[in-house]
C-alpha cells in the first residue's frame, strides 16, 4: 500500500509541476506561488473542517519542524521557474536526482533526528545510472 502511495505521489507531483508551471507562465512566478499556496491553505482547511479536527500544537517540537512551509514555497517557486525553461521531464528528473542526493546525506548522517542508515557503496551504481539517464535526457 505504501509503495503504491509513493507511485501516486510521483504521478501527482508531475501533474502539479505541469499545472503550476503553466500558471506561473500565465501570471508570473511570484503571483503563481502565492495563489498556489492560498488554494492549498483553503483545501487543507476544508479537509480539517470536514474531519472536525482542531489545530493543536505540541510546544515540545523543535522550531525547525515548522519550516517546511517556507521550504515548500521555494520548492514551488524553483519548480515553476525550471519548468518554464526545461519542461516537465527534465525538471522532475533533476529534482529527483537532488532528492536522492539529499536523502542519502540525511540517512547517512541521521540529520533532523532521523535514524542513521549508513550509505552503502552499492547505491553509487544506482545513482550513476540515474545520472546517466538525466544526461541522455539533456542531450536528446
From TrEMBL:
It comes from the Bacteria. The lineage of its organism: Bacteria, Bacillati, Bacillota, Clostridia, Eubacteriales. One of its GO terms (cellular component) is plasma membrane. This is EamA-like transporter family protein. Keywords: Membrane, Transmembrane, Transmembrane helix. The keyword Metal-binding does not apply. The keyword Transmembrane helix applies. The chain crosses the membrane at residues 34-51, 63-83, 89-112, 124-139. It holds the Pfam family DMT_YdcZ. Signal peptide: none annotated. Coiled coil: none annotated.
Amino acid at each position: 500500500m505504501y509503495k503504491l502511495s509513493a507511485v501516486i505521489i510521483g504521478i501527482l507531483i508531475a501533474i502539479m509541476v505541469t499545472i503550476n508551471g503553466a500558471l506561473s507562465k500565465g501570471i508570473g512566478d511570484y503571483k503563481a506561488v502565492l495563489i498556489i499556496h492560498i488554494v492549498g491553505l483553503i483545501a487543507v482547511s476544508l479537509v480539517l473542517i470536514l474531519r472536525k479536527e482542531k489545530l493543536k500544537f505540541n510546544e515540545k517540537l523543535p522550531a525547525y519542524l515548522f519550516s517546511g512551509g517556507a521550504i515548500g514555497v521555494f520548492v514551488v517557486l524553483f519548480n515553476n521557474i525550471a519548468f518554464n525553461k526545461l519542461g516537465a521531464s527534465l525538471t522532475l528528473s533533476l529534482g529527483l536526482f537532488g532528492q536522492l542526493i539529499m536523502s542519502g546525506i540525511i540517512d547517512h548522517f541521521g540529520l533532523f533526528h532521523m535514524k542513521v542508515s549508513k550509505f552503502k557503496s552499492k547505491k553509487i551504481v544506482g545513482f550513476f545510472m540515474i545520472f546517466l539517464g538525466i544526461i541522455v535526457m539533456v542531450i536528446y
